[in-house]
Design brief:
single chain, 214 residues, alpha/beta, six-stranded mixed sheet, 8 helices, 6 strands
């Protein structure tokens, strides 16, 4: 439908062109820090509305087209397990035990200390002056040998110099929350503990506060 809207197509082309004009400068938009080009959804929706208005002026009723678009969008959500599809899942509306553990343990995080956490915990600590995102990354070669004395190993990366990190090691957490599988995330934490980089400060079931050693 947006293909029938010249303004929408022009906006999409201008938005995407920045990556070809300055790819290196804008490459960070594909990292965990920033989302993919969500703004394109706005252009496509406006283009669809413009196209429906165009068809209506030519005496083509947009009602049936609109119903077909909505049904198709819902079918895609259900088939591909996209975000809105989670609303239809029972577990989405249930509060798992690890949520209570996180809510309890973040109350004990020192208020003025720089802190790092996974992306589903970060918003609950966002009132602080210094807060950073952590994510697992598989190290290899010389870097892996230096960090954990292995050819390859999982490790937690973060920016800044947080004094503490807050994590939950429950196996039922989603990849979208940890930015990796729970198994690889737990391996990263275990490797950092073994290397003396993390020291347990407090624990509530599967939720932990670790102090960071540099």
């Amino acid at each position: 439908m947006p293909l029938l809207s010249p303004g929408s197509i022009l906006a999409v082309i201008l938005d995407l062109s920045q990556y070809f004009a300055a790819a290196n400068e804008f490459g960070h938009m594909l990292t965990p820090f920033l989302h993919l080009r969500a703004i394109l959804a706005v252009f496509l929706v406006l283009g669809t509305l413009d196209a429906l208005s165009f068809l209506q002026k030519r005496h083509i009723k947009p009602l049936y087209i609109t119903i077909a678009l909505v049904l198709f969008a819902l079918l895609v959500q259900y088939t591909l397990h996209l975000p809105i599809n989670k609303l239809s899942k029972r577990e989405y509306w249930q509060k798992p035990p690890w949520v209570a553990d996180i809510n309890a343990i973040i109350k004990n995080v020192p208020k003025d200390a720089p802190i790092a956490a996974t992306q589903h915990i970060v918003p609950h600590l966002s009132h602080r002056n210094e807060i950073y995102l952590i994510w697992p990354r598989q190290k290899s070669g010389k870097e892996a040998l230096r960090l954990c004395h292995k050819q390859t190993c999982w490790w937690l990366d973060f920016t800044g110099k947080p004094k503490y990190i807050v994590v939950d090691l429950d196996n039922s957490q989603w990849v979208t929350q940890l930015l990796e599988s729970p198994e690889n995330f737990q391996s990263a934490v275990t490797n950092m503990i073994s290397a003396g980089k993390l020291k347990e400060k407090e624990r509530i079931n599967t939720a932990y506060i670790f102090s960071v050693n540099y």
